[in-house]
Amino acid sequence: MNELQELYQQLILDHNANPRHYGRLAECTHSAEGHNPLCGDQIFLELKIEDSCVSQVAFSGEGCAICKASSSLMTERLAGKSVSECKELFTLFHALATGEEDAAQDSAALGKLVVFSGVREFPMRVKCATLCWHTLMAAFENKNEVAVTE
Amino acid sequence: MNELQELYQQLILDHNANPRHYGRLAECTHSAEGHNPLCGDQIFLELKIEDSCVSQVAFSGEGCAICKASSSLMTERLAGKSVSECKELFTLFHALATGEEDAAQDSAALGKLVVFSGVREFPMRVKCATLCWHTLMAAFENKNEVAVTE
Amino acid sequence: MSAVADITSLEAQARRWRDDFPLLEQKVHGHDLAYLDSAATTQKPESVISVLGKYYREENANIHRGVYALSQKATHAYEQSRKKVADFIGAKSFKEVVFVRGTTEAINLVAQSFGRVFLKEGDEILVSAMEHHSNIVPWQLVTEQTGAVLRVIPMTENGDLDQDAYAKLLSAKTKLVALCHVSNAIGTVNPIKDMIAQAHAFDVPVLIDGAQGVPHTKIDVQDLDCDFYAFSGHKMYGPTGVGVLYAKEEYLERMSPYQGGGDMILSVTFEKTTYNEIPYKFEAGTPNISGVIGLGAAIDYVSQIGMDRIASYEASLMGLAVEKLRDVDGLRFIGEPKQRAGALSFILEGIHPHDLGTILDMEGVAIRTGHHCAQPVMTFFAIPASARASFGLYNNEADIDALVSGLAKAKEVFKR
Amino acid sequence: MSAVADITSLEAQARRWRDDFPLLEQKVHGHDLAYLDSAATTQKPESVISVLGKYYREENANIHRGVYALSQKATHAYEQSRKKVADFIGAKSFKEVVFVRGTTEAINLVAQSFGRVFLKEGDEILVSAMEHHSNIVPWQLVTEQTGAVLRVIPMTENGDLDQDAYAKLLSAKTKLVALCHVSNAIGTVNPIKDMIAQAHAFDVPVLIDGAQGVPHTKIDVQDLDCDFYAFSGHKMYGPTGVGVLYAKEEYLERMSPYQGGGDMILSVTFEKTTYNEIPYKFEAGTPNISGVIGLGAAIDYVSQIGMDRIASYEASLMGLAVEKLRDVDGLRFIGEPKQRAGALSFILEGIHPHDLGTILDMEGVAIRTGHHCAQPVMTFFAIPASARASFGLYNNEADIDALVSGLAKAKEVFKR
Ligand SMILES: Cc1ncc(COP(=O)(O)O)c(C=O)c1O
Ligand SMILES: Cc1ncc(COP(=O)(O)O)c(C=O)c1O
């Protein structure tokens, strides 16, 4: 039960039930679609970038609790950040989720996002947590490709 | 050594070295080609049938000792026989070679051909002995198909 | 409650069968494993596993081309398996049994080798709305190549095929019907004998995707009168990498070869190549020899128990599962077809199937979550994914109870 | 006599390797088995055999689509094998490794998926005069479909490719060269690195049939710079039913899919299907999971010994075999190429190879007799068949001696 509680923390359940920044933007400068064929997660990410900073962000789509909560918490976090700050966050978050490096020392920078540290015990779920972040990177490049996590 | 001697009896070695009725007929009424893809045996059989009897017969082609000796001994045996007698012989010979039935009781009818009783101990070689007989059946039907033993 | 009564009387024999499967003895996250994903692949009885080891330790050699004793033994064992398959499905002759990698390859083989000879622009191929991707994509590829058109037999809300629509779709333009025996996504058993007869009235041949049929019911291809029947060894207690295409001799004779190479030829020159007789014409290269022999052992295994006993045991188990799951609050079945075999699909309100899969796994319960390679079925029911529990002859009431209590656990986790 | 000196020093280690192969302990017709048919299929070390059993007893599940622990383990093991293969042959990325049934399927895949995109009427495909049927017939099939033309690189009397003729055959019309690394019929090692460079000067990609290359020499696909490299697991100490197509990423990306079905798609609707990324785009349906894992174990096995040690041991053994056979009265080698690996072919005056095969078998010596799926080579040497002895890392001097005395026995039988 410990690992499960670690994975499905209250904050995650809350963001899953009540996702923030859920919907579409009236106007956006960057967007991308992300798809995880394993479980059918599919999200759309829209950004408005002004002066190299994310001024507005929204996501929509279907996904599991980890995917939705991660998208919600990510979008909450991005507003106002510069593109290069976002890219650094991506790197930190990726390290946290995959457990490839000890991300604990960066927990200050990650803030609330450390709530996803539990996924590293669930290799098949890592992609659920990182899908929105991969989609963000794709949006920055404004490639018209679908970001895929498999 | 016993089984090998049983297989390669003197008579077989002799007919392999000096095959009878080897060559082509000046004119023939029936012919067929036989092919054993396993070892590359390939024989051509030509018959002259008059009044439902085999008046002339010849074979040519390439094959292993069993195949050549069997062709030679078969052709030696056929001359003058009626088509229906030949078909009976086919049945007897097939039974002998495959060992499916006890052909010993018919050894009188088979005559010298009992020399091939040794092949039943060598399942992969049964087809070498029966190829010419299958080709004979094909020739009787004058089908333009290649008789194949595999 | 009749299902419950049945099950108790059958439970004892099922416990004996279960003992034949070494993998099922393992613990997962501290729990007994409740393996409920047999529609993806079944576990293997010890008799199948050990035949593989025996083959490699005692009989391994390449087949069909060696005169020596070992090659002869291997060839014999390989061809014996073909005869076992032919008997098992009631084929007229071993010539109608082609060994392939699995259902997917069998269907691709037919799509290409039948398609090249029999399909032209404007011809129609009928598939159903509940097909696995393996019975959709090969036809899409062949329609691109030939200009033929794919038409879809629709499904009703409960997950049965719409038989009236089927009758109307059949026409002189139809050149093939490709249809699953049993749906892997929702468990529907289609009335294939009837549907085959209807197609034959239009002289249309029928391919049955039997991946989920063979493991759960006795097949008699002559009684069904299907023209093609495809299935996978790994879904019927056999090894991976081997499957069967059954096809009527008349079609195999007329179809063009599939892959070219060793064993499928009679003679080769650079100018002209002559193909071997059926079924060898369709088996190019060294086949999965150990896999084929393992499939033979799997057929021995299920035949010894009896497909009828397996089918009736699984039917009771399915009845029990439906009964117990119906009582779970917030659970909705995806598809409630008239007749169901092997698999059932559901979703739990407020919990994504993928989260469910993870939580159940922590409880030792292995189910599949996702689209089950049948995205059109998901689209039809307007869901992104479903949870699917599927059964083998080794499952029992305890597995179903583990599933039900796992669902309770999931709700607990999500209600915190 | 240097070969003999070498061999004695190597004999001890070879004896240790031989102990890893349980099948070789058997007696055949009362004799120790001298297995000299590794070019048809190799025997398997215990480590490969037992990994198959372990997989089915402990890890079996379908891959890529399950969230539960078991499926995760199976997926991991499967994908680890892909990485092992990539490392073993020096590929840039695991994406360049496609699992197939064997060499035959790999070549058919390229013929169709490359052919559909890159070949049109009048284009030329070059193959060599010493190819296995598996590297001839797939190209004949694709020439029929596309109107491309097959041209043949000729062979010299000693069994080497005619390099001058090759240089002249290459032209702007050439769209692909398909060539064996090592001939299975006569053992010729082709100078493929050189021939690849020449083709690349015309921007022509090269497919190497490595069925007989991989078992006998260290492969580095980046150093060779080949565009495609195909080989079979069962010929390199792995299980049957699994093989590899290595292909450069740029080609895999541009080639059309081969078979359609599960796992090779991203999304499916009846209107439009999107294909998965490479290499998955080329792996439709459930693969031979245990076979792939077994191939990984085979790679572990040979890597642990070291391909270079294997190659040098086998070279000494080959030298010894040639020396001893040259002394046999009436024996004629079929092909005496500059460099030979794995196999040697011969005929014995007055005794058909097929009869030889039977007599040797009775002496416990397993060789192959026939056309070795290379009929054009037989036609070239104007023989109906040959006898072929081929080697694996487990062979030793005793095997060669058994062959030589078996030949004497055959002469005795035929001289009565
Ligand atoms: C040179 C060569 N190419 C291709 C093949 C075909 O390999 P497989 O039968 O494993 O597909 C062989 C095996 O006999 C071979 O020796
Ligand atoms: C109905 C159905 N058809 C086809 C397939 C494909 O079988 P395989 O992956 O063994 O080729 C499956 C297996 O998932 C299936 O359930």
Which characteristics define this entry?
heterotetramer; A: about 150 residues; alpha+beta; Sufe protein. Chain: A; 4-stranded mixed β-sheet; 6 helices; globular; C: about 425 residues; alpha/beta; Aspartate Aminotransferase, domain 1; Aspartate Aminotransferase, domain 2; 2 domains; 7-stranded mixed β-sheet; 4-stranded antiparallel β-sheet; 17 strands; about 45% helix; binds pyridoxal-5'-phosphate
| Outline of chain C | globular
Care to count the β-strands of chain C?
A: 17
CATH class of the largest domain in chain C: Alpha Beta
Low-confidence stretches of chain A: none
What's the overall geometry of chain A? globular
Order of helices and strands of chain A: HHEEEHHHHE
Give the second-level CATH assignment, the architecture of chain A.
Answer: Alpha-Beta Complex
Kindly state the percentage of residues in helix of chain C: 40-55%
**CATH-level-2 architecture of the largest domain in chain C:** 3-Layer(aba) Sandwich
Q: Which assembly state applies to the chains in this document?
A: heterotetramer
Indicate how many domains the architecture of chain C comprises.
Answer: 2
The chain pair with the largest interface is: C-D, 92 and 92 residues
Outline the biggest β-sheet of chain A. 4 strands, mixed
Order of strands in the sheet with the most strands of chain C? Answer: 4-10-9-8-7-5-6
Beta percentage of chain C is: 15-25%
| Rg over CA atoms of chain A | 14 Å
> What is the topology, as strand order, of the major beta sheet of chain A?
3-2-1-4
Low-confidence spans of chain C: none
CATH-defined fold name of chain A: Sufe protein. Chain: A
